[in-house]
Every structure is written in structure tokens, then in C-alpha cells.
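[SOLVED] Predicted holo structure with LXYGBJRG

Edit: marking solved, answer below. Original request kept for reference. I posted the sequence and ligand SMILES and asked for the 3D complex as C-alpha cells.
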Amino acid sequence: MLLADENMACLEPLFADLTPIHTRPGRAISLDQLDDATLKQVHTLLVRSVTPVNAALIAAMPSLRFVGTATIGTDHLDIEALESRGIHWASAPGCNAEAVGEYVLTALLELAERDGVALQDRTIGLVGLGNTGSAVARRLAALGLTVWHCDPPKQAAGASGNWLTLDAMLGCCDVISCHVPNQTDTFHLLDHKRLAALKPGSWLVNASRGEVVDNAALVAVKAARPDLRLVMDVWEGEPEPLAALVDCSDIATAHIAGYSVEGKIRGTQMLHQALAQSPAALEAMPATPSLAQLLEVPRLPPVTLDGPLDQASLLGLCRRVYDLAEEDRRFRQAITEPGGFDARRKANLARREFSALTVQTTDTRAATTLAALGFDTKE
Ligand SMILES: NC(=O)C1=CN([C@@H]2O[C@H](COP(=O)(O)OP(=O)(O)OC[C@H]3O[C@@H](n4cnc5c(N)ncnc54)[C@H](O)[C@@H]3O)[C@@H](O)[C@H]2O)C=CC1
Ligand SMILES: O=C(O)C(=O)[C@H](O)COP(=O)(O)O
């Protein structure tokens, strides 16, 4: 049997012909919420970031051969416990990187609009230059912004980048955006001392994992530094974020930076492919269908860009795809109710990527920039 998080995209088209599928809310895939009979039958387990696949859960599933997480982060998997039992596992690196890039760009445009400043004049510091950090970097570079990178493992491996140390970055960048995994050496990477060292008027974005920023310290620093602007998508203690941090954040969302229809489908596709290529493959697995074959939703209505592509018109295009300011309002309302955090996650499953919007323009330069940002363009 295949047991999966109910919020996983395309389970039916990809797996229904191969095995019985049993779905549950991700947080209910746990020892205390599954009966023994179900646990014993699970051969393939497909999860998202909210299901801790720990040693006890793994031990209770004697038939388990494959675990797939349709996420980039793997901090919820006990990989040692999986590997010691010879259970094959896979994640979905890069599946939702474009969505994170689009979220961060939209958030920065929203803040620039609110503060009446030009994003163009701000220097950006990206902490982590993997899939999501690079997706942000590409978009900001396409707009001509100065972007610095901090990724000691990549720098040490000889990769090219505009490298700065984290501490140097905090002192000279107007925007710091975090894109590192949650692991021992990144826990509270931004601690009280580093948060206090943020350049006056800085904007801090966290779309990685809540634990990367010391949330309580951030509340204290922000109380003393009203000049700071905060964009928080991830939180310590999800699904119950620190209320004081929600209150003092300028944009707050429910761990949905990486949510897009396309990203969710790519995640399940990658797991289908990984399972098919593993010794745990289900019988007679066909080739993984393409994104176009699985994408059943229509494109967004096309728009024409009248006039120049400037900060205001670009924000308008981003809002047509995804209204982040409205999501921020809904999140603040939802979070006061029990289950509100997860309700906003579920409500965000229909977001499209920029590529779903065709922008018609006769301005060749605007078309080039829009294409580099991920929009579909047409003359
Ligand atoms: N909010 C959301 O919806 C999403 C959150 N995430 C989170 O963001 C994290 C990053 O995602 P990706 O960029 O796709 O991962 P990735 O694995 O492609 O890149 C992470 C980068 O961080 C670097 N890194 C590691 N330690 C570092 C340190 N101490 N300082 C600076 N850089 C360091 C690595 O060398 C690597 O290049 C994921 O692990 C996940 O936890 C990912 C996707 C969506
Ligand atoms: O890919 C990751 O890592 C993430 O954080 C996901 O975007 C989070 O989404 P869920 O998998 O928890 O729905």
C-alpha cells in the first residue's frame, strides 16, 4: 500500500494503477494516529515537510521499502534510521525553487511599494546559493540589482559567486534573504548578535526554515529597531508561530513560499521517477508523465503591458499571479483560530508560477526582462 500526505499533487494519475493509495493529513501520519493494520501494509510512504519520519514510525512499518518527500528540505526524515534498514528514500531538490524565487521577488516589491523606495537602489545579500537562493539571485540580477552571496560550502568547492562572509554581508546589505537547510550548523545562524548587526533599515526575509533565525531574539531586536522590515514565511514551532513575531512582521505567511501548482506536481513526479529507478519500484511502473500532461488547470488570462516596465507595473504583474499582500492579511486572520496555519497552507495549493501568465508587450527590453523573471511573453 502507498500511504501519502493528502496534500500531495497528482497521486491518482501517477500511482492509482499501481497500488492502493491511502491518504491522511500530513500531521496525522504518526504512530498515535495510524492503526497497526495500516502501518503493517505500508510499502511506499510519500510525505511533505510536516510529517516527522522518525525511527519509531519507521520501526512500526515492517513492509516499508521506499520513503519519498516531495520537498527540498529533508530535516523531517531520520535518514540514518532509513538507511540502516535498507529503506530507499528520495527528496525533490529544486521542485519548488521557482516558486520561492517568485515569492521573494514579490515580497521585496511589496515592501518597496509600501516604503516608497526603489528596489533598484537596494543591495541584496543571499545566504545560501543552492536551488532556491539561485532562483532568487537570477530574478534580482535580471532587474540589475547588486547581489552578494554567502555559501561557504559552495565557495569552498570552487563555485563562482559574488562571495561575502555572512558577517560582512550583514553590515553592507540592505536586504538579507535566507536560503539554507535546517541542520546543526545553521540552527540560529541569525542569532541575537547577528540580528542586532543588521544594517540600519534592512529587510530580512526567511523562506528557508524557522530554526535558521532565532525567533525570540528577532522579536527583541525588532522592538528596539523599528527601522527593520521582516518577511517571514517560516517559523520556529510551526504550526504555532510566536504571536509576537507574526505581529511585528511586515509580511507573514504560512510556510508557502515554495507553493505552486507546478512545484507540487514536479515534487510528486520526482518521487515517481526515484521510486521507479530504485530497487523498491512497484511492478510495471510506466515512464513518469511530463508536467504538461499532468497540469490540468488553465493558464491565467493574458495581459498587455501598456507603458514601461517599472517597479509599479512589475508589482502589478506579480500580483496578477499571486497577491502576497492579500495572503498576508488572510494569514493574520487565520492564525487566531485553531488549525489556522494549516488552513492557509491548504488554501495556497492553487497558486501558479509566473510562467502561467502571458504578458503581451511591444517593448523588446521589457520582454527580455520579463522572460528572465519567468513570465511568458508575447509581442
Ligand atoms: N519556505 C518554503 O516553502 C521552502 C523552504 N525551503 C527550505 O530552504 C532550504 C534551502 O532550499 P534549496 O536552496 O533548494 O536547498 P539547496 O540544498 O539547493 O541549497 C542550500 C544551500 O545552502 C548552502 N549552505 C549550507 N550551509 C550554509 C551556511 N552555513 N551558510 C550559507 N550557506 C549554506 C549549501 O551549500 C547549499 O548551496 C531547504 O533546505 C528547505 O529547508 C525550500 C523550499 C521551499
Ligand atoms: O520543499 C521544502 O523544503 C518546503 O519547505 C516545502 O515547500 C514545504 O511544503 P510542504 O511540503 O510542507 O507542503
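OP edit: The domain at 97-252 is CATH 3.40.50.720 (Rossmann fold). Thanks to everyone who chimed in.
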